[in-house]
Write the C-alpha cells for this entry.
Amino acid sequence: MAHQLRTNDSMLAVGEKPWHGLGVTLPTPPATGEEALRIAGLDWTVSREPLFLGTGQRAVIDGAVSRSNDGQYAAIVLDSDEPGFKEVLGIVGPSYEPYQNHQMAELFNPLIQDGRVTIETCGSLFGKRRVWMLAKFTREDMEIEKGDSVASYLLAAHGHDGGFAMRFGYTPVRVVCNNTLSFACEDHRSHLVKCLHTKNLEENLEVLRDSMVEAEEMFALAADQYRLLASRGVSRADLREYARIIIEADKDDKEWTTGQKDKIGTIVGAAMEGRGNSGKNWWHAYNAVTEWVSWSKGSKKDNRLDSAWFGEGKRVSERALDLALEMSA
C-alpha cells in the first residue's frame, strides 16, 4: 500500500485529512477519549496469554522460564470474537502489564471536561502494535513571525508488542504546517516521559498528567528561542553549510556522495520553499530539517512518523535546533 500503513491500522484526525489520505476526518473534536477511540477503530482490547510451543511445552525465552503460572513469559494477543483466531502482537516478560487503549483515553477526559484540551488525532501503526492519542491545548497559539504560529499539544503513545514503553507529555507543533502528526514530538521542545508497562503504570501517568501545567509554562520559554531564530537572517551559503553539518557530510563537497547531495539539496529547498518557509531566517532553516525528517527522510511514511517521534529523526531534530541557535548567534 502506498501509505505504508498495515491493512488493519486505523485513525482519525480533526479538521484536515490525515497525512496518508486515509482514516476518518471530523469537523469537530470528539467529546471524550472513548468516543475518539470508537471513531478511530481503536476500541479493542488485548490480553496476556501463556506462551507454549506446538508440542504443548512452555516456551523458553532468553534461556529462562518462570515456574510460576503467574510469571511465565506470555504473548500479547488482540482480543477477537472470531473463533479460534488469536493475533499475536508481541512477546513479553513476566512483569509486563498490558495497558489498554481505553486507559489511555481516560487520561485525557478530565482535561477535556475542564476545557483545557481537545482531541486532535489518534490512531495505530505497525499493525495495531503502536497506538497514540494527541490533544491540543485550548490556550492561544504563540506567533513566532507573522502568519507562523506554534501550538501546544499533549501526546500519549504506547505499544502492545512489549518493545515500546508508554510515552506521555507535552509537545509543540508548528501550526502553519497544518499537520500535527508529522511535527509532533520531533525534538527537545517536547517533554515526554517514558513509563514501563508495570503494575504502577496507571498511577504514574496520573501524576504526570497533573504536571502538565509546568509544561505549558515551558511552552512560553521555548517560543522565545523560535522568535530569536526568526529575527536572524540566513544566507544560501549558511543554509548549505547547516544542511551539511546536519547530515554529517565531509567539508569538501567533492567527497559528497550522490545521496548526501540529494539530502542537502532537499533541506536547502525546504528552507527556501517548504511549508511556511521562504529561506529568509534561521527559523526557516530549522523547520526545513524537521520537514525533511517528517516528510522525506526514510522510505516509509509510518517509519518516518515513528522516527520523528521517538527514534533517529528525533535526535536529528534535537541537533538541528542547537545548531541553528549556535550558527545564528
